[in-house]
Amino acid sequence: MKHIIEGKASLGPAVRTVEVDAESAGQRLDNFLLRHLKGVPKTHVYRIIRSGEVRLNKGRSSADARVAAGDLVRLPPVRVSDKVQEKLERPAPAREFPILLEDEQLIAIDKPAGVAVHGGSGVSFGVIEQLRRARPEARFLELVHRLDRETSGILLVAKKRSALTQLQDQFRGRETGKTYLALVTGQWPANKKVIDLPLHKYLQQDGERRVRVTTQDDPDGMRSITLVKVREPLATRPQQGLPAMSLLEVTIKTGRTHQIRVHLASQGHPIVGDDKYGDFDLNRRLQRQGLKRMFLHAWRLQFDHPAGGERTELRAELPPELAQFLYLEPHHA
Questions:
Q1: Selected catalytic residue, list 148, 217, 274, 304
Q2: Is it the case that residue 9 has pLDDT exceeding 50?
């Protein structure tokens, strides 16, 4: 990553020009900036794009423009508080994660909930920074895909650039099989097996990213397909004041932001513990019963191994905090 500095340090924050590297190629401009302007509020990032202070190859650009390797991105001077700056400059602590598979091509880890996959807006470090810190001898470690911070389960990290490219091509080409376990409120109708509804990303006034179901004719809508299978119905738990729930196997054919969370909530069955799209009153009751996180887990992943091409299937069983909540008492409907 090359940085070209304009201006003088004595005059305060300087204009920077950053050259896009191969790992960042294909990212949206807004996401690229959020990674490079850590600690800067999202609302400010979008404001400097709209005002033209950010330049892509010397020209104005939009937030959804895609950057390519070798592009030059001009970053205007931005300030963050001393407290945020101190946090950002603190190195990520070294940390290894539970490993499901490791060879010369890749590492498959079982990511715990509550850990971001990488540093970004408001997060100084994530899985990849901690893993690199724990393995200083590793010449190449890059995320193949992403999971929401609140989601646990299978996460792939490439150890070679060739493996990264091959695996990301499979994700983009929908050649992988990605199945999650999700606990939702209510009795999911057994005949509701496919959700094919476009999704639209937007920002709230506070800069928080959200997603909603939109109409087929929305030009900003992205087609999104989710397959649902009822794994287990859970009866009401009157002693704990909890409603009926359904444990689902959810397979996504498209990998949109918050896809599973929004699709399930749009059908009137939000994921329990979801702090963005869920039932907030129920979530408070669930916390008293010991469920302090969203019940969404990346359970199974199928892909062609980048070395030999053989079909590989990984599974990460439910973490203890989810399994324990699921079986608090006899629950079959």
A1: 148
A2: no
